[in-house]
């Protein structure tokens, strides 16, 4: 559904309360993030332990903050939520590929996986409010460089779970996802298993095309669906790395296109 058609629908489902609650959620997230950055992370940095201990503590703090935020959003009635197969996320050496329809996708994924790495936008590593937590958790900046690909492959080889959004930015509403081939290249270099996660948001909201206050006509539903595992080595056996990467990327694109079509036309 395009944004113009959605705007013509009658407002319902406690619209004005949801508008106020959405603003409260963003304010809550901003204030909580600032307090955590100024209090929790300096305390964690002062605790004894090696780099691995500090990394796990930082990721746990982010996980708890994001779970609190998701609970707050659901509690004030901004959205409903469902998840299928979350118990299969967070395995050693697992690379998780997800589409990216909304602003809160990264928050939800990190809220459901307690100790995971994530490829994040470079802007988050430069932002004074998010830089310290991102660095403490040792998330990987999405620079698109060969060094970034190698770093992502290395953490997978070490047994970390890695979350990647191969679109690099939020999907344009009404358009199929467009995956950069870097995600497939990382999977072929280091992943023990590749797991696709389909995210759907209905009605669409918090997209690139609309500000936070342009809320949908009714409460939106956020669904996270974990797909069947993919063996990267099955594609590595198809030929040289560039060919294997292209084949895997095409397979992922087809998978997500099919899954998202099912969400738009259930029962077909």
TrEMBL record:
Pathway: Lipid metabolism
Keyword annotations of the record: Acyltransferase, Membrane, Transferase, Transmembrane, Transmembrane helix
Keyword Cytoplasm listed: no
SUPFAM superfamilies: Glycerol-3-phosphate (1)-acyltransferase (SSF69593)
GO biological process: phosphatidic acid biosynthetic process
Residue ranges of every copy of the Phospholipid/glycerol acyltransferase domain listed in the record: 94-202
TM annotation in the entry: 20-44, 65-83
Record carries keyword Acyltransferase: yes
Superkingdom of the organism of origin: Bacteria
Any one GO MF annotation of this record: 1-acylglycerol-3-phosphate O-acyltransferase activity
PANTHER family referenced in this protein's UniProt entry, alphabetically: 1-ACYL-SN-GLYCEROL-3-PHOSPHATE ACYLTRANSFERASE (PTHR10434), PHOSPHOLIPID_GLYCEROL ACYLTRANSFERASE DOMAIN-CONTAINING PROTEIN (PTHR10434:SF66)
Protein's UniProt name: 1-acyl-sn-glycerol-3-phosphate acyltransferases
């Amino acid at each position: 559904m395009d944004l113009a058609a959605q705007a013509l629908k009658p407002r319902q489902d406690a619209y004005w309360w949801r508008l106020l609650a959405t603003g409260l959620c963003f304010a809550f997230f901003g204030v909580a993030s600032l307090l955590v950055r100024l209090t929790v992370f300096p305390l964690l940095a002062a605790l004894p332990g090696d780099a691995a201990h500090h990394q796990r503590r930082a990721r746990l703090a982010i996980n708890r903050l994001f779970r609190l935020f998701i609970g707050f959003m659901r509690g004030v009635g901004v959205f409903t939520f469902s998840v299928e197969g979350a118990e299969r996320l967070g395995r050693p050496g697992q690379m998780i590929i997800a589409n990216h329809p909304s602003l809160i996708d990264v928050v939800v994924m990190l809220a459901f996986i307690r100790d995971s790495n994530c490829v994040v936008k470079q802007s988050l590593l430069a932002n004074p409010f998010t830089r310290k937590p991102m660095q403490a958790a040792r998330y990987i900046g999405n620079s698109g460089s060969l060094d970034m690909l190698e770093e992502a492959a290395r953490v997978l080889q070490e047994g970390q779970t890695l979350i990647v959004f191969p679109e690099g930015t939020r999907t344009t509403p009404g358009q199929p996802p467009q995956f950069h081939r870097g995600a497939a290249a990382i999977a072929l270099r280091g992943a023990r298993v590749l797991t696709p996660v389909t995210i759907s948001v209905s009605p669409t909201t918090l997209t690139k095309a609309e500000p936070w206050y342009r809320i949908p006509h009714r409460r939106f539903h956020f669904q996270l669906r974990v797909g069947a595992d993919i063996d990267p080595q099955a594609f590595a056996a198809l030929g040289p790395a560039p060919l294997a990467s292209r084949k895997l990327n095409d397979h992922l694109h087809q998978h997500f296109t099919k899954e998202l079509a099912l969400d738009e036309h259930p029962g077909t």
